Structures are given as structure tokens and as C-alpha cells.
Amino acid sequence: MTHELTIAGPTLEEVERARTTLTGVVDVTPMESSHYLSRVLGQPVFMKCENLQRTGSYKIRGAYNRISSLSDDEKARGVVAASAGNHAQGVAFAARELGIPATIFMPIGVALPKLAATRDYGADVVLRGHTVAEPLKAAAEHAERTGAVYIPPFDHPDVVAGQGTLGLEVLDQVPDLATVVVPIGGGGLISGMASVLKQRAAALGREIRVIGVQAVNAAAYPVSLAAGAPTEITISPTIADGIAVSKPGKLNFAIIKDTVDDVVTVDDDDIARAMLVLLERAKLVVEPAGAVGVAAILTGKVRATGPTVVMLSGGNIDPLIMERVISHGLAASERYLKLRIPLPDRPGQLARTSEIVAAQNANVVEVLHTRHGTGLAISQVELELHIETRGPEHAEQVLGALRAEGYEPRVDF
């Protein structure tokens, strides 16, 4: 039995118009199957690779759709936005394609690749403050002073409709879709996709589940949904800076409370492990915010029946941050151990511990030998070993071998 669904979000006709607007501007990104994630979930899993989109994320969809809808007078006044990354690049690219001047306010500490890319797309970039709040304030003041049109990152019907085009693409590529797993920051992406998927499912007389994922240190939606209204939270540091939004958008919240089936959270260790899995198993570079859906699958937070699509929403990551995340992911997977071992201060102890580790087929990559460790007796030294292992079981095997020989290793990470 089919029926129509009335929600706060864009209609299917509005999203179809947005898709027409975006034709030739955005890429129809690949949908890749994942045998590894399918085994983990116990259902067929597909990855929607918006990390391979122009500008490196889905944000170009909403930005272009919003800017293209401006009047001639508004276009002449130019546009302004505030962002630390993906939204900045989406707005800058869209403005360039439409021949409109753009000013982007970014925090002083923005990653250099994101800063360079935004400038390369032709935007006038102004660095202001050290958090996103300060560029947001500066962008609002610029709009008031100059008449430039402010382009919001998520809380606008045109932006939501633009992001909703991904829902149409996903259904084209996986027609029997049963579950979709989507990162959430302010809520632009998931509100657009959920609008489309729930309306299409109702028309077809079937169910499609929509699951949102937030970083635990920036999880405004569970709090807001419990309160029944958009609620501001205090954000703690997280590697998923692309979805670190302290308060849901009003329009986005209204859509999400009616259309999203569940919102789960993952921590930074989970995200780092997911990025490592995507690199090793899928050969895909995905930024932390874009990998939270995979993290939710790996940690068992997602329950699904039938074909499941996980959104890889972006791939813009500073190589220096990538290096740190890979190291963190290896440590979180217990494939890289940092051990501190108190030793008697006599010859041969370093060689003996190295022999034990080597006998377990683990690789020592760094060694520090010191007499100044905290809590050491006068007759003791401390050995710090950085060791590569094959995973948790192998790591425990190495630790067990050291303990069997009377040593007391302490794992730092």
C-alpha cells in the first residue's frame, strides 16, 4: 500500500529540481561494495563515496543550489560564508562557477590545504579568530555592512534540497536500499537525504531506515532530541572537526525528529580505526567526519537488515593530521604499542627484552633507555619500547612473554 508523507523538509519535486540545477556541476560519485563491512554487519554494505566529489565533499551540492537560486540583484552583491573547511570550498567553487564574488571567513588555524583550496577557487579569504564562532560573527557583520548574501552551511531549504540529491543518487545506485548510515553535524546532509528517502519509501509502500552518527564529543542531536528542541552543547575536542557543531539547525532538527530512526555516537578511537580500515581495505582517503558511519558499523552501533549504504561524506584532510590519525588508529587497534618496562640497572637487560620481543615476531621501531623515569628506584632504569604488532591477540602474546620472564610492562598506548 502506498501513501504520501508530509514532512518539514523539501518535497521530492524540489529535490528533483535541485538535481537538474546540479547536473554537470557535481559528479555522480561511485557506490562501492565492501566485503569487509558486509561481514562485520552481516548484511550487504555499500559505501557512497562523496569523498571523491568535486571540492572533496558533498557540501558543493547545497552551496551551489542555494547560490544559483539568488536573484540578479543578490548575485551582484556577492556571497559570504564562514567555515573551517568543506563548506568554504563548496561556496567558493559554486560562486566561481556562477561568476559571483565570494568572501569566506576562516579561523586563523585552518589547515593549510583547505585554506589553499578555498583561495584557488577564487574566494577572498579572511582569517579571523581561533574558533569557528569568530568567523561566523565576522561573516554576519560583513553581510550587514556590505549587503552580501550569507550562505549558511545547513539551515536553509535550498541547502537541504541540494544535499537531498544524494538521496536520489543512492536510490538510483542501490534500489533495494534498506538502511542508510549518515554523519551528522548541523544536520544538512541527513535532513536532505531523510526527506527524500522517507518520501520515496512511503510512495513505494516500504521502509527505509535512516541512522545518524555523531562524534561523542560533539553530539548535540541526542541531547536536542531528548529535549524536544535544538539545544546548544559544549563541544569537547574531537578529530571529527567537520561535524563539530554545537547546536542543530532549526529546519534540520524539525526534519530529523520526524524522519531519522536513530542517532548513535562514536569516539575518536572508533573514528581513527574506521579511517584505517578505509585506507587498508577500501584504499579510500576519508576525513574523520566522513568516517563516523563506518565507525558505527565497526563498533556494532548499527543494526540493519537488508542492503545498507554508509555515507563517506568527505575526504579533505591535512596530510599531517592524517599521519597522526593513522598512528592513533594503529594504537587503538593494538597494532602499535608503547611499553614502559622497569629494569634492573645492570648489563644485558636491554638485549634480553629485545630477544623476548623478537621471539614473538614483533618489531621494535623505537627504543628509549633512561634512569629518570617517575617512580624508579635508584637501582632501576626504565626502558621505553615502541612495538609494531599484528593486532590485539599478538599484542597480548608479546606482553605475556615479557611477564613470563619476570618483567612488568606498562602499556601507554
UniProtKB/TrEMBL annotation:
One of its GO terms (biological process) is isoleucine biosynthetic process. Its EC number is 4.3.1.19. It is an enzyme of class 4 (lyase). InterPro entries: ACT-like_dom_sf, ACT_dom, ACT_ThrD-II-like, Ser/Thr_Dehydratase, Ser/Thr_deHydtase_PyrdxlP-BS, Thr_deHydtase_catblc, TrpB-like_PALP, TrpB-like_PALP_sf. Pathway: Amino-acid degradation; L-threonine degradation via propanoate pathway; propanoate from L-threonine: step 1/4; Amino-acid biosynthesis; L-isoleucine biosynthesis; 2-oxobutanoate from L-threonine: step 1/1. Residues 338-413 form the ACT domain. Its cofactor is pyridoxal 5'-phosphate. This is L-threonine dehydratase catabolic TdcB.
